[in-house]
Amino acid sequence: MEGQDLKKQSGFAQGVKNRLAVAVGSFMTAILATGIRGDWLLFYVQIQKLWYGESLITEASLPGLDRGAAENGSTVQYENPLERYHMQGVWFYVLYSLLGGFVILYGVGGWLKWHFYIQRRNKAAEWKCQPDRFLTPEDDRLEFRLGSMNMALGSVLSGILVTYIMNGGETKLYYNISDYGWVYFLLSIPVNYVYNEAAAYYSHKAMHIAPWYKRYHKLHHRFKCPTPFGAVAMHPYDFLALQFLIEIPIFFIPMHAGVFVFWLIYGYYYSILDHSGIHLDPFWPWQPQVIFHDNHHKFFHCNFGFNTEMFDKLHGTLMRKDRRYTETTFGGQGAPKSSKPQNKKGN
Fold first, then answer.
1. Residue 38 to residues 6, 34, 193, 239, 265: CA-CA distances in angstroms?
2. Total domains in the fold of the chain
């Protein structure tokens, strides 16, 4: 009896420990999500403007701006060409974005990599989607370098965008729900989600058209069992295309900043989880399991969606067990298993 009680207590303690580890890991992944694509400063600025109001423009935050002239509506005398394009102080914001991005990427990302891929490597069957497969040391280093490079690229672009916004550059972001009303605000939440997922699916599927795939996207698929750094370990053209599609709507469609920031963080957060290689069940009912995208890396031309299976089901590109998938089987629907497989190098 006493032994059973000790066993129960031990099981309870282990359960609490596991839940705590998941909570800490989720929190750190959320932080990493703001930095891995270099957009942490953009998130920070939008949250600040939501908190303090749209007029969060100060002399300290905008070096070189003739604030008095701007507020009085009089003609602004530009001291240098950067001011004409709302770029004053751009070097400060870019540097700030880069420093923060690297701290987040190497600090939080490094911790996640250390906790699972080093400390628990010998227990891979308990947590890994592909427990018998790890990146080679060469691919591991390449994934890290590519992730770092694209994070730096994203940080520079984010710093430029933040500079533009903070200097009064025009976007369609708004900060008061009353500007467009509650109906518009509430409808914009699912509409923005569907747009992001449609943009991700169709652009990703286009990257799997043979010419683009062979020249650019194949690099991302070199990592057949990715780690958290794999979320942005891709050709810069792939990275820029995805960033462009996600952020371009703020210049054309009125969008509450809170909705924009929420879905941006949501997408980045699950992008990291999807590339983590860690077998996790989703919290949201519409969110696929991590293995959904892990299988995309394993089988190549299927499962093109990110945060929903909807578009894959619609277009018949969801991975099927009765089909065979190889890196040379394009189209997204595989080939009959009875057909003769083509020879290809494995990892």
1. 48, 7, 21, 12, 12
2. 1
